[in-house]
Amino acid sequence: MWVNQISDGATFTGDDLCEMTIADSRFVRCTFRSVRFNCATLERVSFTDCAFHGCNFFDATIEECMVADSRFDRCDHTGMRVTGGDWTGSALPGADLTTADFARVAMRGVNLTGAHCSGATFRDADLGGAHLRGADFTGADLRGSVLTAFDPREVELRDAIITADQAVDLAECLHMSVRPA
């Protein structure tokens, strides 16, 4: 178990953090290369301006963590569950998030360009200002999330699950005038 770890500018390469609990720790400008977070639990951990290259988050649980302005490249997010926290400004372009579950997460300005999110869950997530061009949210559960950045002409939304209020937001993104009957 890592508790109260503080790292600034450190590089972690090939570390095996499988099934570990990391809590109340802070990482600033750190680089993680091929680190295995498989089945790990991260609680109230802060990653600010960090880079993750080829890391594995298979079945990881991430609760109330700040992952701000961080970059993910060629990472495995299979079965990752994120609850609460703030991922504002982070970049996951082209990421495979098809089995990821995000709930009550601030994701303002997140870069999901070309991300594979079909079947993923983004419940009550703030995706305002997100970069989504070419992302695929086919069949994704988006209920309760802020969808103002979703342009249906640039994002695949076939069979996505949304609420009636969100349908109005999407219509307004298309510059439609929504009026009562």
Features of the shown structure:
Pectate Lyase C-like; 2 domains; 1 helix; 15 strands; 4-stranded parallel β-sheet; elongated; 181 residues; mainly beta
Architecture (CATH level 2) name of the largest domain: 3 Solenoid
The averaged pLDDT comes out at: 95
Q: Which value, in Å, is the CA radius of gyration?
A: 17 Å
Top-tier CATH class of the largest domain: Mainly Beta
Q: What's the CATH topology name of the largest domain? A: Pectate Lyase C-like
Q: Into how many domains do the coordinates divide?
A: 2
Q: Roughly what fraction of the amino acids lie in strands?
A: 15-25%
Organism: Paractinoplanes durhamensis
InterPro entries: 5peptide_repeat, Pentapeptide-BTB/POZ_domain
Pfam family, one: Pentapeptide_4
Protein name: Pentapeptide repeat-containing protein
What would you note in describing this structure?
With 181 residues, the protein is mainly beta. It folds into two domains: 1-57 and 66-76, no CATH class; 87-181, E3 ubiquitin-protein ligase SopA (Pectate Lyase C-like, 3 Solenoid). Helices cover 6% and strands 24% of the residues. A seven-stranded parallel sheet has the order 1-4-7-10-13-14-15, with no helix packed on it. It has a four-stranded parallel sheet with strand order 2-5-8-11, with no helix packed on it. It has a four-stranded parallel sheet with strand order 3-6-9-12, with no helix packed on it.
